[in-house]
Amino acid sequence: MTRGRTATSTGGEPAHSGVVILRRVPDSFHMTPDEFRRHGHAVVDWVADYMERVGELPVLAQVEPGEIRARMPDAAPEEPEPFEALIDDLDEVVLPGITHWQSPGWFAYFPANASGPSILGELVAAGLGAQGMLWATSPALTEIENQVLDWLVDLLGLPQAWKTAVGPGGGVIQMSASDSTHVVHVVARENAVARGASTDDLVAYGSSQAHSSVERGARIAGFRHVRLLEVDAAHALRPDSLQVAVTDDLAGGRVPTIVTSAIGTTATGAVDPVAQISAISREHGLWHHVDAAWAGAAMCCAEHRRHQAGTEHADSYTFNPHKWLFTNFDCNVLWVADRAPLITTLSTQPPYLRNAASESGAVIDYRDWHVPLGRRFRALKLWWVLRSYGARGLRHHIREHIALAQEIGRRVDEHPALERIAPVSFALVCFRHVAGDAETDALAAAINATATVYVTASAIEDVRFIRVSVGQTHTTRADVERLWSAIADGVGSAG
Ligand SMILES: *Cc1c(COP(=O)(O)O)cnc(C)c1O
After folding, report:
1. 174 lines ligand 1 (CB under 6 A)
2. What is the pLDDT of residues 229-258, one digit of tens each?
3. Which architecture does CATH list for 130-376?
């Protein structure tokens, strides 16, 4: 029997046997609001159940390549399927292939946090389905984003001039830190070209520990020269190496254009000397971009803001609420100290986008602030996170994660078979097995084989080490104890 989708699309007709056969009138295959309500409640229940049980699932997906795909039919269904079947397949098809970033046993990479208010914000943004490319295409999308990012300026202790309400700077939500870093390289290039430089001569700088998005963003922006400079013993960029490189490039007829400093590198959480890099940048007219993709979240807590001293002279700053600030991917923030060059670089004026509000100059059209034209309502989930947690809630959880990381650091220091390879930075602990690389890798494998926690094995200058990043939304002391048991047991088997 064909299942009728809506009450009005089916009619009864007696067959020879006297059985009533439903005859489908295919006037609509859409889900009705009532069906949406019913299935929506079931889906929310499914997600809530997932939140309750995610801590019991093996953190790392346990499937072989191709295994998930093989669970799916070879072709899309010709006939509509009941929605219940779709929900069932979350357990049958999807979950086996999920690595559980939302497990409280997640200590790998950096977090990619979700939270209740953020998930619900995503749902409503999808429900509204609005497009915020221009102020006029949904004023709430732009104005809420303006206001929420201005709030964040205060929450993170950043310069007042970066607020859109104050200016000349402003903030914009982008998809990723990589996008933001790429875009500022494009803007810095255009600034240099406008001053008469040739693109071939432009030079971009970062440290050897800069995130790969710095080199990639620069290359995609057309930089032929990207210098990844020497770091000190704490893996932070050495200002003298920047000074020397800039002097050499000037002597060689090249044009030093942009430098990226990191507050919290990906490998070890190192903090580059932002103030000294700012001073060199100002002396030589370089654009200074600050990458605080992960550690920016810690700036909610005033005790960490010393690490961003000098940021008031930076030209741009990027930070990912989608890492540690309980906001679902994607949600990256880029602030620029002056929005004029950004808009000049990225703006075009096709006739179909012209409108009175834009021409009045009284509104912000975010399409001019990034590469895509269209944009969804990402500010909603961030707004809901900030309101639902309150600044106090955010500080509470960030501080708790940092305290737990420091505790792990102390235990590593006390353990005769373990040594840190870098200072504990914010909520990141990097250590190795004193016996060497093979033992370190064996230890990481033993920890991950418990399947109840997950850490990352990495290397810096050929020295293998283990990265433990504390910061999953729901990680607590109990999870850290579980991690520590896995480490202590693993040292026994690895050593
Ligand atoms: C994670 C990270 C990035 C990249 O972030 P995306 O949003 O995934 O592009 C850049 N820089 C640093 C320091 C990071 O930790």
Report:
1. no
2. 999 999 999 999 999 999 999 999 999 999
3. 3-Layer(aba) Sandwich (3.40)
